[in-house]
Amino acid sequence: MKKLFLLVVLFLIVNLVVSSQSKVDSLLQLCNKATEKEKTELFLELSFNTRSDSAKSNQYSRMANQLAVQNKQIPEQAKSFNYLGETTYYKRNYAEAITYYQKAIPLYEQIKDSSNIYDCQNSIGLCYHYMFQGEKAIARFITALKYCEKDPERTANLYSNIGMVHSRMNNYKDAIDNYRKSLRINLSIHDTASIAVNYNGLGDTFSWSYMPDSALVNFLKSYYYFKKIKAVDRQAIVVSNLASVYTNYPDSLNKALDYFNQAWDSFQKLGWNHYEADIRQGIASIYNKQGKYKEAIVAYNESLRLTDQFNRGFSLKKVNYEGLAGVYEKMGDYKKAFQNYVLYTQYNDSMVQKEKYEQIISLEKQYETEKKQNEIIRLQSRQELMDVQLQKNKQLKILGFVTASLLLIFVFFVLIRYFDKIKLNQLLEDKNKKIEQSESELRVLNAAKNKFFSIIAHDLKNPFHTVMGYSYLLSKDYERFTEEERRKFASDIHHSTNNIFRLLQNLLEWSRSQTGRLMYNPREIELKRIIDNSVSVLRSLADQKNIVVKFDYDEALNLFADPQMIETVLRNLVNNAIKFTPEDGTIEITAHQIDDHISICVKDSGVGISEEDARNLFQIASTVKRKGTNNEDGSGLGLILCKEFVDKNNGTIWVNSSLGEGSSFFFTVPARMEKSQ
Fold it and tell me: What is the Cα gyration radius of the chain?
């Protein structure tokens, strides 16, 4: 006890007089002299003091947990799991955080620590909220209410959280009811900061449910309370919210404009320059309602530029494009109105898809975490069984010393068990390898499936938008357009249908390749015929951009490959070269024999490719997709198809490129050596 007392005193001295890093160093020095039980608490202190470095904090928490389990220290076990949950929560790995909190709860229940049970349940609820699982989040918050019945501050916080979840789920009535429950409690305990938060939450909910009068009243109250506690940053946000509400009143648009300018002045002083995109969008909507269409267009475009600069996401872009479509429609410029409406619908679809994708990712993380935990439990059970077996063997050894006969029987028994274990381990190793191989194949299939759905959902849809849009305009108001505009519409429709045809052609060939319906039939073929067949179907595209296609190869060269696959590879590479080469450019197709392979190169004078994009071009999970020099669409599937077909023909494919300096795509295929005469 005396030793422990001295350690505690020394720790308190360290805590008072040294910096955070010095404190960590001192704690580590204390660990060298401490007992195992004392080390548990010291490791927990180290975990707490290294929270800024999640990897170190997790390491110390695990070390504390291991010692706490060995020494049956229940409070320390619970605390270590709680710390692990906190660090993974702040890393936004919510699924893993939930598993740690769930391990901490039964331990806190053993020691009847209702305060920490509340914290864990509340944290789990927040995890589910950020994982878009609102019902589970609300269930956890309601469970947490049982553990804070006599704590009004925590009760109010839970009602506020429940209101936040309902608001996100568009359950506005339930959201308002819970915010008001929280508000009544906070008013009774005079918690000014929480009162301000409640009024702001009510204002947001009323605003989203199109009740501007109620939203205005609650935002003004929120501003009053934030001003009372001098929360300058929160005041700025509320002012911005007030400006948005005033845009609903035609006679208060100038007032809304003043509020937006006030909010922007505050954001600048706080250094929150990323909010300028939101401010410009709000000002643009005011100009739109005031009939100042030119000023509105400038403000919308400035908001779009700032959205890209500060990576503010799809939601703000969607609102800006919707606003631009409305302005151009009011100005009678239906062409630009349609173009911006198409962009609005695309970003709207992308937002829905992104939210669903994030939900899927969260569920996948949760599944992977649960799978890891089950594996850990399985290994622990196996270790326990091994420990029991070792104890049994020890007893048998003791008994074996009694007589030589028992010793021989025991040795014989152990040998049999040993060889059985070797066989079982070998079988287990083989099965694990098969499982790993199956998982690898499954990941590739999932990536292929996601790629296929992405192309169907996005890239195939875009050219259809163009065809449907222009054909609709021509069918509804044909005479209003000039001959030049009609020719332009027809040209765009033709260009889009060509894109649809090429995309479908690649999808068909890729689909056949993935399902094993594409047969590999190699034979000796002339290189000249392959090049002529591939280039002839693309000649018109090159002529449209006045691109010169040059050739440099020996016409006597022969290949030993599947002609259909190699034509597909060459056609895709030439098509990409045309797509990314500006008008009046050049494309050169060269080939020469190196040992027993033919090396073919498609070189263009186009825009080139960055080093990072070049590394990912042939990956199935790649997201590298770019517009051509004439805004031609691309799915990224063509190069993946090239990689598969070249691999099937025992060749390799690669690219040499730099931005602004063109690209050179190389691939090799086997050559059939000419017989000596």
Answer: 34
